[in-house]
Amino acid sequence: MLAGFALCGLHAAASLGAQLPAAHERGDFTVTGRVTGLPEVETRRTRFQLRVDDDPALPEFLRGARLRLSWYENEWSDEPTRRHELKPGAEWRLQLRLRAPRGLRNPGSFDSERHAMAARIAATGYVREQAAAEQLRPPRGIDAWRDGIATRIGVAVPGESSRYVRALALGDTRGLEDADWELLRATGLTHLIAISGFHVGLVAGFFALLGAALWRLFPALCMRIPRPQAAAAAAFLGALGYAAVAGFALPTVRTVLMIAVSVAARLWRRPLRISESLALAAVAIVLVDPLALLSAGFWLSFGGVAWLLWCLPQAGRRPLRDFLSAQWVATLGLLPLSAILFGQASLAGPLANLVAIPWWSLLVVPLSLVGTALDGLHAGWGSGAWRLAAAAFDLSWPLFDRLGGSPLALWWLPEPPWFALPMAMLAAFWLLLPRGVPGKALALLLWLPLLWPDRGLPRPGEVELVVLDVGQGSALLLRTAGHAMLYDMGPAIRDGYDAGERAVVPALHALGVRRLDMLVLSHGDADHAGGLDAVRRRFPARRLLAPEGVDIEGASECMAGSGWQRDGVRFRFLHPPLHFPYLGNESSCVLRIESAHGTILLPGDIGEAIEQRLVGRGPEDLPADVVLVPHHGSRHSSTAGFVAATSPRLALVSAGHGNRFGHPDPQVVARWQAGGAEVLETPAGGAVRVRLTEDGVVAETERLRRVRFWDSGRFR
């Protein structure tokens, strides 16, 4: 165990130590390297990975490094973009701007920094000058072959199911959009749609049968290698080849290693139980890639097999009953892990899997694999099999589409306390004990901390403010005992990244927000209003308030003097006044929240002129315990007079890490600190949670609340 911990620590330290040094953050480099994996072509950018050549002319930290890059559409020039020339396996010379891997940190958010460490990503960045880009060598290798197969599937299967056939045949999920993944999660089918261990097992079984048949046709071969050993070796070679076709995705590697353990035991004539194979496969994976322990798939794969081995040791005698029992065991046994890892549970999953597992696994997946094998022998031979796979897929998909569209399909769970997982695992163990064990009904109580955790809502008269980490923009959640509202919804890029979908909505789910009573849009700029549509799709609030002149359907005007009161907390607008023309930032809705335990001021993106106006016309309305620093800490706001008039104890900055505007300006931060305020910034600490209670103002940042050793900048 100590050796295992040491090995994991060495790999983690090596991965973190290989990341771009802080001194070279946002530096420009010209590198040569090979495109690895399959580039993801989006409407306005192409995302890809580049393995840098071991060039002595490059700095040491870039030689052989793996980079995650974007090539954006050329919007400021009439020159046609060249990003579509990127092909897997090709070698390029590119001019790049790089930075160390860094992500947003919110409750319930995807930990991109952990993912970068596990994937050994040294830096992220984008292509700077497309005129300087040069392809040095044409596409070659397994990735180029996979891309060619994917293109031929798209031609052979022109319908909507083409992207699913590509995923099943090659593990190519580039065609699946956010809506597709959401539907798959709602129906619990994500483990079937991309290449998984089951697919590798099918191929290994086929090659084992093929090897055994070959030995039966030529009995003389048995004089050299016994037939069982030959079949086992053929199974391993087939699994290894198919894992290469799938790009050595982690689920396939896990299965290959498990098959390798079984094959080694067979070659050495050593009897090996399934449980021993499982344990040895886990050891093998940790030896090959210790950071695989950070992936959800590792725990779900081994956890699922372990539950089945324990609960159904004699499975196989009654196929139908064993299949139903396996579904029950997998659903109940993996529910605690799924809830902790993904913050959600699929209520429609068990029913969908009863149909999908036999239909897809026995018909759709084999046809997809046969098509890939035939096309590998000769281009075009696999078209018929792929079309049959698509037809079989289309027969079942309407059922899953209907199940996934049900409002009860996906159950979002708030972040539970630390003890919820062991209690839920104990409950699952108790419920899966043999019949006759007493007190099983009591085990249901152990599920409560996981499935119905305390959301920690404020008491009457108290208020909670959560400044979400959305990059260069803002999104703030305000909660009282029975009232929740959102002030701004984060940035979004047309046909690109949407913080409302990727950051705000997951955070609201993790915080246990079940509905939003009101949305307030400070003004219409994309860094504040971009995520509005995504938020409204998931949380259709009763009211939407915005400045006069913002063209948004269903919005009412936020007007100085108007307000409302909930749970002993008063909300009141200080700006803009009646008939104030829409001037962008200067028209921001300035909201004041007054409670029995303190006051919060949210000024949006107002600048010096509006700050002076508020100080001159209503200085008695400005003092506050907590203030959101105007305009993300721009040097054109936070005047000395405004800072003195508000005199907060806590000043909060919502901005993007390393943003091109230089927010927050160091002089602005110093001004707030000189005024007696503690300054907390989302670029440094992630989401900021503030509570105004009878004990005073309590604040914490997400990065300090949940410290992780891979946090960007912690040791840099």
TrEMBL record:
SUPFAM superfamilies: Metallo-hydrolase/oxidoreductase
Keyword Magnesium set for record: no
Predominant location: membrane
InterPro entries, per database record: ComA-like_MBL, ComEC_N, Competence_ComEC/Rec2, Competence_DNA_uptake, DUF4131, Metallo-B-lactamas, RibonucZ/Hydroxyglut_hydro
Residues in Metallo-beta-lactamase domain copies: 472-657
Transmembrane residue ranges: 192-218, 230-250, 278-311, 323-345, 357-377, 416-433
Subcellular location: Cell membrane
PANTHER family: DNA INTERNALIZATION/COMPETENCE PROTEIN COMEC/REC2 (PTHR30619), RECOMBINATION PROTEIN 2 (PTHR30619:SF1)
Designated name of the protein: DNA internalization-related competence protein ComEC/Rec2
